[in-house]
Amino acid sequence: MVAVSAPYVAGFLAFREVPFLVEAVQRLQQESERLLLPHRVLLVDGNGLLHPRGFGVACHLGVLTDLPCIGVAKNLLQVDGLVRDELHREQIRSLQRGGDMFPLTGTSGRILGMALRSYNNSSKPLYVSVGHRVCLQTAVRLVKSCCRYRIPEPIRQVQKQGGRGGAGRPRVGKQISRQQRGLGLPTSR
């Protein structure tokens, strides 16, 4: 457990949480080397390239650990002309079954991520974006393969184990698990 003393500031999540995540990843890497687990991908409850500065928590963590990293967000950040307007709601309604998706293309013409209906019974999409060392197609495929419910199972299990603050963020000063943000690596206790 760690004490989080910095407040949450929108757009700067990485500066608050990445130091703890890097330490957790290093511990998990040591454990996975002992267990001979060669394949590692981090799933992060947050954004990668789909971010106001184009470099969200999934990018930050991926670069610092040099591991493939995928951002998985529950809400769309309004970036590069992407807005939650009637057109966006219509695109969401067009997602009829699990695995359906549409690209999140900014006014710049750049594809920043993908809206994914993660499973059949979910009406709300996930917003998947590249963090580090993975292409968007692979990121979406991996996220979809981890979804028994709306949220990818590695993130969902971590969130079930740890207490959450309002809006999905830890409360200031609250003791939180170092894996709270949902890393897609095996944990050791």
From TrEMBL:
Major place of residence: cytoplasm
Protein's organism: Bubo bubo (Eurasian eagle-owl)
Cell compartment(s), UniProt: Cytoplasm
GO CC annotation terms, alphabetical: cytoplasm; nucleolus
Region (Disordered), start-end ranges: 158-189
PANTHER family linked to this entry: ENDONUCLEASE V
Keyword terms, alphabetized: Cytoplasm, Endonuclease, Hydrolase, Nuclease
A GO biological-process term: DNA repair
Name under which the protein is recorded: Endonuclease V
GO molecular function: RNA endonuclease activity producing 5'-phosphomonoesters, hydrolytic mechanism; single-stranded RNA binding
InterPro entries linked to this entry: Endonuclease-V
